[in-house]
Queue: 3 jobs
Job 1
Amino acid sequence: MKKILITLLSLVGYVTGFTQCNEYYVMENGTSWAYETYNNKGKLSNRMQQTVKAFEKTATGFVATVNAVTTNEKGKELTKGEFEMSCSGGTFIIDMRKFIPEEQQKMFESYKMTVQSENLELPSKLTVGQTLKNGSVTMTAEGSPLPMKMTVQITERKVVGQETITTPAGTYQCFKLTSKSTVSTQMGVNMTFNFSSTEWLAPKVGMVKTESFDKNGKSSGYTQLASYK
């Protein structure tokens, strides 16, 4: 569960950048940013460095390919890979498939895998009191000796206020968003985890900080913007 929370915190952070399509995401080829994730005791858990390696303008927005490298607190590489970021008609689209941790995806590789998802969206304009679209993804392995299924749902996304947030990257005037998440796994044993999250988004910067809380409201850790260029 700890790795799932770290993945969710980090991947919420991946939706950050620079774009002409959405007020919060303004990017170009070579744009680079980094995040640091801390556990509930304030200890550094990992760093994620992301760089736009390909950027293509479309008739209604853009499609970008981002290279991502995650290292532990000592700088040892943990994961690396690529993902897409896209925007259309002013709406930034967050691919929910990226919220399935890589470790879980590898467990499904030996079988026929089916994925059903409903992507998250972020409009170009935010206002306090606004409700945002939910997102979900379900991954199922067919033909495995035991049922293998994982579902991530992000619901009750709301814009609840505005706050000034300071991180190593700078000080930003942010919109504050809250949401609830449910992670369900069926891999021989059924398990369900519920937690909530708070995000702070700044125009032209995107996600500045995100923090996760358990069902009792206790912080599980946070991710913050460490650098941006």
Note: Residues 9-19 have pLDDT under 50 and may be disordered.
Job 2
Amino acid sequence: MMADDSGIPRLPATATPAAVIAALREFGCVVIEDLVEPAVMDRIAAELTPFFNATPLGNDSFIGYSTRRTGSLIARSASFRPLANHPIVLGALDEVLGDHATSYQLHLTQIIGIGPGEQAQPIHRDQWAFDFFDFPAGFEVECHCMWAMTDFTDHNGGTRVIPKSHLWADKLKPSFDETVGVEMHKGSVMLYLGSLYHGGGPNRSEAVRLGINVGYTLSWLRQEENQYLACPPEIARQLPAELAKLIGYSRGAYALGYYGDVQDPFEALHGSSGDAPSFTAAVARTTTAPQGDQDESQ
């Protein structure tokens, strides 16, 4: 896998999920260039500008004193929804997250607007949101997209990353000088693992840098953005079935997320089954062992 001079791999919009997966495994991040037309971002911006303008600035150095973070994007922007379940993104997640869990789910949706004069965000791993739990090395529980609503440059607060740092030990405190800036055109997207060390860059320009952060996590972990308040049933009922299930209106595994009399959440929207994982399949995932390792005394 080839990377640019900064060490960040780049792929064209025609890239296959397999190519995205390979880049994520090797570098922990990958930019897919010009994946959607800039006009798509313009439509999203038009729908979300009133909400963004009403969002208060942050109140600490992590959220950002000159940064606005606007969520609930599924409910607020119909034009955004195809980005949340973009086939190239989900094709990669099916292996990166889906190869070691029954399912994954939408974790958060958020416009991040870094304003002029904002300082660099502390370098961190997104998976620290899970109460700083020390997940086993190589066990990925989270993956994010950063979609460029405006061009990302080193000058205007483009995200800073440390390629291959997903292979590093946990709870390190890398310096800003160890990072490189992600530069990409409006309509491009960067995928990165929850274990990658990164942070928002300082904005030395006179304009707001706008990006859309969309996160995904294993279904047995709590979502960062409460999707059932961000996108309540009366709105989720209007969504395509697969997007509603991705939000969390489905069982995460055989005995995770049912409601009422052991009913699938999808029934709450449409009165039909959400095809919950079977108990037999769930048990098979955890009990399959080589023939020679089986206990003959059972």
Note: Residues 286-298 have pLDDT under 50 and may be disordered.
Job 3
Amino acid sequence: MVKLKVVGTTVALSASLLLAGCGGDEEASGQSNSSISEALEYTITGIEPGAGLTGLTHDALEDYENLEGWELHESSTAGMVTELRQAIDNEEPIVVSGWSPHWKFAEFDIKFLEDPEGSFGGEEGIHTIARLGLEEDMPGAYQILDAFAWEVEDMESVMHEAQDISFEEAAQNWIEENQDTVDQWTEGAEQGGGTSIALVSTPWDSERASSNVIKIVLESQGYSVTVTDVDPAVMFEALVNDGADASIAPWLPIAHGALYENHKDNLDDLGSNLQGAKNGLAVPSYMEIDSIEDLEPKE
């Protein structure tokens, strides 16, 4: 569930002036909570307006009294990452709407802020779901999809490498480096013999990573695989209306929970293929704050 305009320049200038006034070479990590909030001009750097994470961030602004007067600067995932990179290069304070798995956690030393109000809902799992009847129609593919499971660090490593090469190449490299894990997914599975299987996913880098991995694995077992990136609502509708066979993309129980509840009786939920997915507010690790409650309200 992912903006270099005037705000980015203003934040950087405000932070520089404030740090200079507090002792010249004093780093952002040595600032008080109040001065950090002032340097940020009480602004969270966000992503796309329609993203689920954007809605959760707006919820946090309502839930936390100490975020009174704060604003969410909505833009894009790319814009958020650009501002995050710029802030870290200059060791300046920044608070971003973040989620994991995402390659930024492999690229940068950043951390989630604790969320005592639970605005972001805690940890999620990424599930594998299939159309009813897939187990009978394609037992080998079903077995592989059911066995598919990996870790947050695995997904983030593919995403990170895919910033420089294609997702297909990054997925192939991960498979070659983790063949023992892949062998566990495919052990004893019936060969596909050219059978076509249609997977649906979402246009997020996390799901591009997983979909490319499972596509290559299924193809190695003799299946002809297509992956189509669609809106989450379309993803669920395709599976319940036999327009696709399976997906390894839904985030549950929060991000796609409402869609899942609407369609769960007409789907086969194979369980989570990844545990520990998370949404929240993230900051560079050099910032000496650990909780959303450490931020100060605008006076």
Note: Confidence is low (pLDDT under 50) at residues 1-29.
